[in-house]
Amino acid sequence: MQRIDQIYINGAFVSPHGQELFDLFNPATGQVIGQVRLADEQDARDAIAAAKAAFPAFSRTTKAERLAMLRRMHAAMAAREDQLNDALIEEYGAPASRSRWMAQHAASVLLDAAKVLEHYDFTRRAGTAEVIMQPLGVAGLITPWNNDAGFICGKLAAALAAGCTAVIKPSEMSAIQTRIVTEALHAADLPPGLFNIVTGRGETVGATISSHPDIAKISFTGSTPVGKSILRSAAETLKRVTLELGGKSPVVILDDADLSQAIPLALQAGFMNNGQACIAGTRILVPEGRLAEVEAAVLQAIDTITAGDPHDPRTSIGPMVSEKQWQRVQRYIRIGIDDGARLLVGGEGRPQGVDKGWFVRPTVFSGVSNDMTIAREEIFGPVLSIISYRDQEEAIRIANDTPYGLQAYVLSADTERARQVADRLEAGRVLINTLAHEPAAPFGGFKQSGIGREYGTFGLEAFLEPKSILGGAR
Ligand code: NAD
């Protein structure tokens, strides 16, 4: 049993003012493995005050000083990789086949930000004016549970690279992972107040951050409904807001695709991160003339996908993060059946031979129409929908017929043709025949998948404001 009873304010581990104790679970067993004492509104205000006090000096640091800090943070995170890997398996249920990548990613995002900072010019000319890109102030960084360490480090890296100080509110469900991150970043020996970490509830700590007048910028990753409520409270003080929200990403399989490659890739896109991924490809669009072939290929490929013990290196799908999330996914599977979608594989309940933990059967529906609930709403579990289309025009129309627009996938034997389709998709990222990640490229959503971009130069500029100097330009 881990007991976490400290938060991190002004460079020190302190006892929170908040008293509430919150249970932490191992989702593979459903058992309590720890408890965290949650921060409250007062703690959030203290953290904001510390970040505010640190901002004037930090915002005037040089690029070289901030680069050195980011590199120290990277080394400190990399030194904790094994410990974070274990926590990702125990507390989140990430399968070992993925947890290692996630643990490494939490460190590498710090170096990625350093690379961007190294080549970024904070001043430029615009006509007779000199334009200075100036840090916004104190940033509130609010993150979800499905990649706790990666989101904390990624947002913090961009904020600090820009010269902003930060108050971080991670998900209360990831407190063990957060503690490892906090200890690592503390070891990087940054001046006090640059970053403050207050684990607490969204309605208390999160709401205080999103409404506080001393917060200039919010960077939020989470669900679309919470994103909208943050945008509303941030409007009162006109905070700058970056929102990374949900998705219902299409995987467009063109009629020339080699299914022996396309189907395993489509299933991987759909089931990644136990299906708890905002970028999961959950709508598989297939030409109607090849539907039978696609279904046969799915049935064959699914045999190689194992849902179960996250410690087992052969496992590709671990448990849902919580019982609530398990119930939510079960409800959607029931809705799919009730709405008349055809269950190709999977279904309600736990996988065969599994009698505990929040495991879901990898599920694929066929005969889905794009107006069914399972095709429109984000399920956030390993539940995929096969939707057939008549021709390429209809495929593009269906792909874009969604309130979301985070990511899209196009699979084809002809890259140029896939590219023409990609150009017409409404999504912040389109991946052609690949699942690769590019940290230098902007990431974020069209439509209700969000506002703004993270990563690369766009991600850095999300923490900066242009100021034009006229008359006295150097
Ligand atoms: P969530 O929206 O419930 O919570 C996200 C964070 O917001 C948590 O820290 C939570 O405590 C906090 N929060 C909740 N209510 C709040 C409020 N009123 N004010 C301020 N903060 C509040 O999301 P979740 O269930 O933790 O995560 C899953 C969601 O995140 C999914 O919808 C998924 O698509 C989305 N997500 C998006 C991305 C992306 O980059 N676009 C990445 C990962 C996850």
From TrEMBL:
E.C. code: 1.2.1.3
Domain named Aldehyde dehydrogenase: residues: 14-469
Signal peptide: none
Pfam families the UniProt entry points to: Aldedh
Record field: catalytic activity: an aldehyde + NAD(+) + H2O = a carboxylate + NADH + 2 H(+)
Xref: PROSITE patterns: ALDEHYDE_DEHYDR_CYS, ALDEHYDE_DEHYDR_GLU
GO-annotated molecular function: aldehyde dehydrogenase (NAD+) activity
Broad EC category: oxidoreductase
InterPro entries to which the protein is assigned, alphabetical: Ald_DH/histidinol_DH, Ald_DH_C, Ald_DH_CS_CYS, Ald_DH_CS_GLU, Ald_DH_N, Aldehyde_DH_dom
Keywords from the UniProt entry: Oxidoreductase
Active-site annotation: E244
Family (UniProt): Belongs to the aldehyde dehydrogenase family.
Protein name: aldehyde dehydrogenase (NAD(+))
Taxonomic placement: Bacteria, Pseudomonadati, Pseudomonadota, Gammaproteobacteria, Pseudomonadales
